[in-house]
Amino acid sequence: MKIHVERADRIEFKNPLPSSIDGEIKGRIHNVSETGCKVNAGSWVKVNSTVHRIAISSEQEEISVGGQIVRARMIPEEHGSVYELGIRFQQDDPALAHLQDWLQRIQQEQLNQVHH
């Protein structure tokens, strides 16, 4: 039986945003929502591992929030492999409110670009 997981609306990035996991593993965020994100990283991280800080860097700011690896798979690429990591944010992390504000600003910017 497959469990259906309700997901929040995701923001996709044409140019993935730089990120780091616990300051050690560099990656690029391909999409993000209020509940989590998808990161392509150069290193494997075990599913169910706790992420103390995922740092998301944008042109305006850097946001750090805690989470947990909920999905990981290797993706073969031309120049080696990359690891696609699904991260669920810790819903009790005080930094989550800052992330939610940032997401609302990005959504508004995207709407403004569509209407201009």
Name the helicity range. 10-25%
Q: What class, by secondary structure content?
A: alpha+beta
Give me the CATH architecture, please: Beta Barrel
What is the CATH topology descriptor?
A: Thrombin, subunit H
Globally, the shape reads globular
Strand order in the largest sheet: 1-2-3-6-5-4
Beta content comes to over 45%
Textual characterization of the structure:
The chain has one helix and six strands. It has about 120 residues and is α+β, with helices and mostly antiparallel strands. It has a single domain (about 10-115), classed as Beta Barrel (Thrombin, subunit H). The protein has a six-stranded antiparallel beta barrel with strand order 1-2-3-6-5-4. The termini are far apart. The mean pLDDT is about 85.
Q: What is the strand and helix layout of this fold?
A:
Blueprint: E1 11-21, E2 25-32, E3 36-41, E4 50-57, E5 62-77, E6 80-89, H1 96-114
Antiparallel strand pairs: 1-2, 1-4, 2-3, 3-6, 4-5, 5-6
Give a summary of the structure in a few sentences.
By secondary structure, the chain is an alpha+beta fold. Helices cover 16% and strands 51% of the residues. It has one domain (11-114): predicted glycosyltransferase like domains (Thrombin, subunit H, Beta Barrel).
List keywords for this structure.
116 residues; alpha+beta; Thrombin, subunit H; six-stranded antiparallel beta barrel; 6 strands; globular
